[in-house]
TrEMBL record:
<dbReference type="Pfam" id="PF04919">
    <property type="entry name" value="DUF655"/>
</dbReference>
<dbReference type="InterPro" id="IPR012340">
    <property type="entry name" value="NA-bd_OB-fold"/>
</dbReference>
<protein>
    <recommendedName>
        <fullName>RNA-binding protein</fullName>
    </recommendedName>
</protein>
<dbReference type="InterPro" id="IPR007003">
    <property type="entry name" value="DUF655"/>
</dbReference>
Amino acid sequence: MQRKRVVKERVVYVLDYMREGNPLDRHKFHRDRPLIQAVGEDYFLLLELTPLSYNLDFFPEDKIELDSNSSVKVDAHISYEDLTSVSKDNLPKILHKIVLEKEKVFVEIFNKAEPLTLKLHALELLPNIGKKTLRIILEERKKKPFESFKDIETRIGIKDVASILVERIIKEMQGGEKYYLFVYPLVSDENKRLEQQFIYVGYIEKLK
């Protein structure tokens, strides 16, 4: 897997920790040694990490700083399909936690998101937001900027904004999208063969 440019996560959350390694992992060096699967909070990169000590234990939702004093080493970027079943089960809950922690940034997306083309607005890529709901959002944010998820839900009449955002993030992680609002996309050999074109919008990076 390759990426269009090098981006790095500062903080990740543990999705799954395999003390004995993962015998099904496509990386041979992960099959018989401790392995962590994690998700980053800035670009939503999916990563495999190796603990720097066999004495360390990790649990889902643990927050790890990837600085010079980090207790882990980043080994590889992985795709959604590389995640274990445990990681996939934990992913929505952990993404929900990240979205709530970054509520101010995500609210600003509702305030500042723009059209991607003449016919498609960025907000229309979110689940449950069609032309009618988009029109209401644009009208309401002209009157007064949104201040919170609750404010958006009350004024627009949609439910659980955080879950809507999580659903979109997971869809982008799964790949095959033309526009990536949040997730920094992987470029696979298959994408290259198909000459698949995609656009990284990167609202979190722009507004944080």
